[in-house]
TrEMBL record:
Keywords: ATP-binding, Cytoplasm, Kinase, Nucleotide-binding, Transferase. NCBIfam families: cmk. It comes from Paeniroseomonas aquatica. CDD domains: CMPK. This is Cytidylate kinase. Coiled coil: none annotated. The keyword Kinase applies.
Length: 212
C-alpha cells in the first residue's frame, strides 16, 4: 500500500478519526490527524494571550509549530475547538500548514483525516471518504466522551458548541467543510464503531477496485 493516500473528511464527532486510525492500521499506512495542526496553532495563540482570529498572529503560530506541539495534552475541549476553527479560517494559516500535510502524505502514503483533505490537500487522492452523522448523534457522542473523561457538561451546551463549530467551518471562505465531489459519503448515525469500520473498509476496497 506504499504511496496510497486516503482522505477522510467530516465534521467533529462523526467518527472520522477512529475510522481513519483503524484504516491506517489495517493498510499499514501512516496516520495523520490534520486537525491537531490547527488545534496546536490555536493553542499557541491562546498561550500567548492572542486572538485566534488575528491573521498575523495565527500565521506566525502556524509557522512556529514543532512536533512537540502536536503531542500536547490540552488540544481538546471547547476553547481549543473554537480556537482551531478560528485559525483554520485564515488563508495564511492554511498555506503555512499545507506543504507540511502534503509532504507527510507523499513520503510513504498515508491516511489523513480533517475537513479539507479531499477538496484541497489531496484532491487527487484515489480514495476519499466523507464521514458524517446527525447533529443530535454527534452531540451525544461528544457528551459521552466528556463524561468518560470526568468532564461535566450539559448535553445542550455540547450541542450548541458543535453547531457553532459546524457553522464556522462550513461558512469560511477558505477551504470550507464539504464533501469532495467524488467522495463516498458515510453516515454513521445508525452505525456502531464496528459497523462503521466495516462499511468504510468496503468503500475503500470498492474505490480501489481490488481486495486489500
Amino acid at each position: 500500500m506504499t504511496g496510497l493516500v486516503i482522505a477522510v473528511d467530516g465534521p467533529a464527532a462523526a467518527g472520522k478519526g477512529t475510522l481513519a486510525r483503524r484504516l491506517a492500521t489495517e493498510l499499514g499506512l501512516p496516520y495523520l490527524d490534520t486537525g491537531l495542526l490547527y488545534r496546536a496553532t490555536g493553542r499557541r495563540v491562546l498561550d500567548a494571550a492572542g486572538d485566534p482570529r488575528d491573521p498575523a498572529v495565527a500565521a506566525a503560530a502556524a509557522r512556529a509549530l514543532t512536533p512537540a506541539d502536536l503531542a500536547r495534552s490540552d488540544l481538546r475541549g471547547p476553547a481549543a475547538d473554537m480556537a482551531a476553527s478560528a485559525v483554520a479560517a485564515i488563508p495564511a494559516v492554511r498555506a503555512a500548514l499545507l506543504d507540511w500535510q502534503r509532504d507527510f502524505g507523499r513520503r510513504h502514503g498515508a491516511v489523513l483525516d480533517g475537513r479539507d483533505i479531499g477538496t484541497v490537500v489531496f484532491p487527487e487522492a484515489p480514495v476519499k471518504l466523507f464521514v458524517t452523522a446527525s447533529p443530535a448523534e454527534r452531540a451525544r457522542r461528544r457528551w459521552l466522551e466528556l463524561q468518560a473523561k470526568g468532564t461535566a457538561a450539559e448535553l445542550s451546551v455540547v450541542a450548541a458548541e458543535l453547531a457553532a463549530r459546524d457553522a464556522q467551518d462550513r461558512q469560511r471562505a477558505t477551504a470550507p467543510l464539504k464533501p469532495a465531489a467524488d467522495a463516498a459519503v458515510l453516515d454513521t448515525t445508525e452505525l456502531d464503531a464496528e459497523a462503521a469500520y466495516a462499511t468504510a473498509l468496503a468503500l475503500v476496497r470498492q474505490r480501489l477496485g481490488r481486495p486489500l
